[in-house]
Specification:
Elements (H helix, E strand, L loop, with lengths): L2 E5 L2 E3 L5 E8 L7 E7 L6 E6 L6 E3 L7 E6 L4 E6 L8 E8 L17 E2 L3 E5 L2
Parallel strand pairs: 2-11
Antiparallel strand pairs: 1-3, 3-8, 4-5, 4-9, 5-6, 7-8, 9-10, 9-11
Length: 128
């Protein structure tokens, strides 16, 4: 089991940038694939992107492709979500989630059920 804590959220103007962090404790993060999700008011939680345990593979939702980048520093036990060209529709609570290394290799990265451990979330508000 791994404990996750997100940070870096806040208020930003449209077109601005933010970098979210997902710090892990309780286990070695490099064994875990990490997904980023978000939930806007009145909407279901949706997958934003995922990074493999090694960092060699990333995948993104179409809505953020080209604007968001996921990276990881396994030495620091931290995964990052760099968000650029932010839009008001990016406003949401952002969560990171860890997928157990014992899980199947092939999975639907957008499904919340594929991840076992979750952070508490950090609010991102994009508004002028």
């Amino acid at each position: 089991q791994v404990q996750l804590v997100e940070s870096g959220g806040g208020l930003v103007q449209p077109g601005g940038s933010l970098r979210l962090s997902c710090a892990a404790s309780g286990s070695i993060l490099r064994y875990y694939a990490i997904g980023w999700f978000r939930q806007a008011p009145g909407k279901e939680r949706e997958g934003v992107g995922r990074i493999s345990s090694s960092g060699g593979s990333t995948v993104y939702a179409d809505s953020v492709k080209g604007r968001f980048t996921i990276s990881r520093d396994n030495a620091k036990n931290t995964v990052y979500l760099q968000m650029t060209s932010l839009k008001p529709e990016d406003t949401a609570v952002y969560y990171c989630a860890a997928r157990s290394p014992a899980s199947a290799i092939v999975y639907n990265w957008k499904s919340e059920r594929e991840y076992q451990d979750w952070g508490q979330g950090t609010q991102v508000t994009v508004s002028s």
